[in-house]
Amino acid sequence: MSSPSNGSFVFGSELLGQGYTNQTDQIVGHIIWILSIIAVILGSYNVYLIKKMSIFHNAFGWFWASRTLGEIGSNLVHVVYSGPMTIWQPTIISPTMGIIAFTIGYFFACHACVMHQVVSVNRMVAVCFPLKYRFIFTKKICQILIAICLVEIVFVVLAYLVIPCQMVGYSPTLYEYVFVSCEPGMERDLSYVGTVVNRFCFGVCFATVISDLITLVKIIQIKRGGKQNQMFRRDVRFFCQTSVQNITMMIALTMIVLVNNSKSSDGMIMQIAAFNTLILTHINNALALIIFNPEVRARIAGRHITVSVADSSVRAVPTQTADHHSNAGNQK
Hints:
Blueprint: H1 23-52, H2 59-88, H3 95-128, H4 130-136, H5 139-162, E1 168-171, E2 176-179, H6 192-224, H7 230-243, H8 245-259, H9 265-291, H10 294-300, E3 305-307, E4 314-316, H11 319-329
Antiparallel strand pairs: 1-2, 3-4
Helix pairs in contact: 1-2, 1-9, 2-3, 2-9, 3-4, 3-5, 3-6, 3-7, 6-7, 6-8, 7-9, 8-9
């Protein structure tokens, strides 16, 4: 890309601010910054709840916590870098910082995306194969799955840096992660690695929709058969938590795939929408843990509850009794 002052090529000039701010910069920057702060706060509270509440001391909780940590890491990058850079539009910060911001944020975001598929499969197995669940999702297997996802994402991120001319960074003027030109007069305006990864992520998310549909069909069959019990109803709530994210995630990924770093005015609007919809997805995901779990809502309200195995009714009980039932009733 050419420098505006002397026409000479400046590597990473796409990632520099414009030196002054306008109303659009302020609006978009503050939206990114505020939404990301909300996502970090809610995500951190999710991790706290998973640690403190025995209902989440199982494979579902470990996977949900791992995904949430990925979302927290991704949004922290926006809080520290993307949002402030968009608001202030500085020109003195090295373009390398924009590439680093993308690398760190993308690592965490991709991990969260892949772990969402793992969470979805976990719920499918819990509902469709309840007797085999505890043998499939042992603590060791859960740790191995999380480790495999992390290693996979490391290689994905390295592909941007190792393969020549594929780098991407955050652009405060385009309000999105964009391709970094590596030579003067370059006509290509996209990263091939990024194009492949974006489509892969879309495929992963679509696979999550399919696994959720399979789970939903099984839930309907069980309900019609009249075999609901406490564990089944809890699995239904956990299923709802995983499935609500797919709506915003599919919208965001569809926009990302369609635009794919386009620099047209219409493309920029789509990129802004996609960038912020991903953050909204993380907020939506964190809220799901609160909305779909009466135990969490009761904790926020300062009450302790237990669920009767016989009729799944919810009632207030003393702290010691609630903890006893929770530990006894939620072991896999």
